[in-house]
Amino acid sequence: MTHYQPPLPPASSPAQSGIAPMGQRVAKGAIWTMAANAARIASAILILPVLTRLLSPEDFGLMQIAAPFLFFLMVFSDFGMQPALVVADEPSDKLWSTAFWTGLGAASLLTIILIVAAPGVASFFNEPRAERILQVLSITLLLGGAMIVPGAWLLRAMSFRTLAIVEFSSVTAGIVAALACAFMGWGVWSLVAQQLVMFSIKAAIYCTISRAPLKFEFDFAELKSITGVSWGMINVRVLWFFSGNIDMLVIGRFLGAVVLGYYSIAWRIIAMPVQIFANGLFQVLLPSLGQIKDDAGRLKAGLLKTYRIIALFTFPAMAGIAGLSVPLTAVLFGEEFAPAAYPMAVLAVHGALQSLLTVQGSVFMTLGRVDVMYRWSLITLVMLCICLLIGVQWGLPGAALGYLVSTLICAPLNFRAMLNLIGARLSDAWHALKIQTLLSVSMGILVYALSLSVPSSFTDLQVLSVCIPTGVFIYVSGLYLFDRAAMVEVLTIAQSVISKGSSQSQREEP
Length: 510
Description:
Order of helices and strands: HHHHHHHHHHHHHHHHHHH
Number of domains: 1
Shape: globular
Strand content: under 5%
Largest sheet: none
Number of strands: 0
Low-confidence stretches: 1-23, 500-510
Distance between the termini: 7 Å
Helix content: over 70%
Mean pLDDT: 78
Number of helices: 19
C-alpha cells in the first residue's frame, strides 16, 4: 500500500525553497488547484440538473438561509490563525500545538452558540424549518476547527497537489451523498448531508496526512506572536463575509425562500468559473508572494501575470454565461427555475471582476497592509448594502442589478488601492487584460445574437450545442491571432505539471 508523506514546510528550510523559481511554483500550484476545481465543478455541473429536478427552489432557498450564519461563525473559528501560521517566519512546535487547541476550543464554543441561536434565526426569516437545519449543520464548525492547523501546515509545505486531491475527493463524496439522499426523498436534508459528508472526509484526511507537530501543550505567549496578523484578518474576514452574503440575507428577508432559491441557483453557476480559476490562487499565492515581497518589480510582474491567466479563462466563461443564460437555465435546471436566468446574466459581469479581486487578499497580507484591505472592504460593504436595499424594491431583477452597480462602482477603487502599493496603475492592469476583455465581450455579444437567430424550432439544448462551440471557436481563434503567447504559456505550464505529477506518482510507488 502506498503511503504518502507530505514534505516538510519550506519555512524550516529556506535553502530548499529556492530550488524552483517562485513564479514556476505559483503557476504549477495554480494549475493543480485549477485542475482539481475543474474536476470538482464538472461533477457539480453533472449532478446539479439532477438535484434541481429532485428538489424544489424552496429547498435551495432554505439551505441558503442557513448557510450564511454557519459561514459567519466559521470566520471566528480560527481567529485568523491559519493565514497567520502560513506567513509566519519560523513557527515553533509549541505554536502549532497552541494554535490547534485554540482552534478546536473556539470551534466547540461556536457550535454551542449556533445551536442556541438557531431558533432566533428561524424566527427572523419566518422559516421554522431552518432551526433544525442550522443545529445539525453546527457539526461542521467542529470539523472545520480540527482542520485549521493541518491545513496551514500543508499550505506552508506548498503541497498543492495533495490539497487539490483532498478537496476534489471530499466534494465528490458530498455530491454522491446529496444525490443518494435526494433520490430517497430527503428534500433539503440532501443538501445538509452533502455538507456533513464533505467536511467529515476533508477533516479526516487533513488530520491523517498532515505532519504538524501536535502535542498536549498550550503557550499563550506563543499565541500572542501571531495575533497581530490574525486579528487583522478576522476584521477583514467579517467584512468579506457580509460582502459575500448580505445579498442572500436581504433577498431571503424581503423576498422569501423561493426567490432566494432562484438567486442561489444563479450564483452557483456564476461561482463555478471563479472557484476553478481564482479561489485556489489565494492559498497558492499566500506562501509564495512572501518570498518576493521586498522586490516591487517582481511582485508587480507576478500579479499582472496572474491576472492575465485568470482572465484568460474566467472572462470568456462569464461572457458565455451572460449571453446564453436563458437556454442554460432551461437545460440545466428546467423551466421551474426560469426566473434565475436574468440574475445569472447580470451577475456574470460581477463574476468576471470578482475572479480578479479574489487574489488581492494575498497581496495585501504579503505587504502587511491588512489595514488598507479592511478600509476598502468596509467601503465596498456599505455601498453594496445601499444598492441592494434600493434594488430589492423591484424584486429579484432589481436586487441583481443593484449588486452589479455596487461592483462597478467599487471594483476600480479596490484595484487602484492595491495596485498603488506595488507601484502599478490601472492602466497597467488594463494593458495586461485588454485582449481577453475585448475578445470575451465580442464573443458574448455574438453568441447572444446567434441564440436569437437560430430557427424557432430548435430546442434549448440544440441552441447551446450550436452556440457554445461557436463561442469557443471565436475566442480561441482570437487568442491565436492576438495573444498566442498566453496560449503557449498556459499549455507549457500544464504540460510541466502533468509531467511532474507523473514522475512524483512513480516515486511514491512501493
